[in-house]
Design brief:
With 322 residues, the chain is α/β, with parallel strands linked by helices. It folds into two domains: 242 residues, Spore Coat Polysaccharide Biosynthesis Protein SpsA, Chain A (Alpha-Beta Complex); 64 residues. Helix content is 33%, strand content 20%. The protein is globular, with a radius of gyration of 19 Å. About 7% of the residues have low confidence.
Length: 322
């Protein structure tokens, strides 16, 4: 069985589409279960999704709903799902997928076949396409010396206030079944082979949104786990309007998480340089782009607060796996 984990935040209609894309690929040989971690208790749109219309249609597919106490962020919500799956089947395959993503035909069978021939891989990423079938993620790289976190077809550099804008590059690279020349994979579609872990793998609770996937990959790779991206397996990601409903909050969290990631994984000089650059650019933008400037400064202050006071809710429950 493959366990899918997704996090709901007022995304019932999108999750219905995700369910259809998974359920249509399940069979006697390949049963699936979708674990929905509900970060929006007031959202009642999930009620009908977890009711099976008839036993024959849902024979090889089921849904488990886990209600979080509040909106606890993406990483912590994923942890609730991972802990539940690990308790049921510590040798299972857990496929984390965004609620606004869905699977093309044949994706599950391809992943299963790949996993059978690459059992040593602890973390497997997939390519990500937009609804127009344009590929925009095939792995990420990281330079601890400069603090630059890059996607293969673009760079994430929040110091320039290009909120996750992707810079198009060469799309004619030859696709291989597995590419391990990467430093991180996207949490939009991230497969975890639980059998490779001595403890349930967890996202760092210091993160609320953004870069938790980067931290997850870097932390476990540094502990000796193997990781690769399956370039011939992809999901289709249609960014939901929820992600842009509050751009100020989004940018604040992105700045905070970016600096947090550098403090955990980059050289100290890179962190200082990026922090000062973000702060300086924010001050220069205070007149022409006051909302952007304020959001950046709030992100810096949020990181400063973390640096001095820590995150009291994180509880540092992450175990070293090797």
């Amino acid at each position: 069985m493959i366990y899918f984990i997704t996090v709901n935040y007022y995304s019932g209609e999108l999750i219905a589409r995700l369910i259809d894309s998974i359920r249509s690929q399940c069979s006697t040989q390949l049963a699936c279960q979708l674990v929905i971690v509900n970060n929006s208790i007031a959202d009642h749109s999930l009620t009908n999704l977890i009711k099976a219309p008839s036993q024959d249609i849902w024979e090889y597919f089921s849904v488990k709903l886990i209600n979080s106490p509040d909106n606890i962020g993406f990483g912590r919500a994923c942890n609730l799902g991972l802990e539940w799956v690990y308790a049921q089947a510590p040798q299972a395959i857990a496929w984390l997928i965004n609620p606004d993503a869905y699977l093309p035909a044949g994706a599950i069978a391809k992943l299963w076949q790949l996993q059978q021939s690459h059992r040593n891989l602890s973390i497997i990423g997939t390519s990500v396409y937009d609804p127009k079938q344009r590929q925009y993620f095939v792995g990420g790289t990281f330079s601890p010396d400069t603090g630059l976190i890059q996607e293969e077809f673009g760079a994430i550099d929040v110091t320039d206030a290009r909120e996750s804008e992707l810079i198009q590059a060469n799309h004619n690279q030859a696709a291989e079944a597995v590419n391990n020349q990467i430093d991180w994979v996207s949490g939009c579609s991230l497969v975890i082979n639980l059998a490779q872990f001595n403890h349930c793998p967890m996202f760092d609770p210091d993160y609320f949104l953004y870069y938790e996937d980067f931290d997850f990959c870097r932390r476990y790779v540094c502990q000796g786990h193997s990781m690769a991206i399956a370039t011939q397996i992809h999901v289709i990601h249609q960014t939901s309007a929820l992600t842009s409903a509050n751009p100020g909050f989004k940018l604040k969290q992105e700045i905070y998480s970016y600096l947090l990631s550098l403090s955990k994984h980059a050289q100290k000089i890179a962190l200082i340089y990026r922090l000062l650059r973000i702060f300086g650019v924010a001050l220069l933008q205070i007149v022409v782009k006051p909302k952007v400037s304020i959001a950046k400064l709030q992100g810096v202050l949020l990181y400063a607060r973390y640096s001095f006071l820590g995150n009291p809710s994180s509880a540092s429950s992450i175990k070293n796996d090797r």
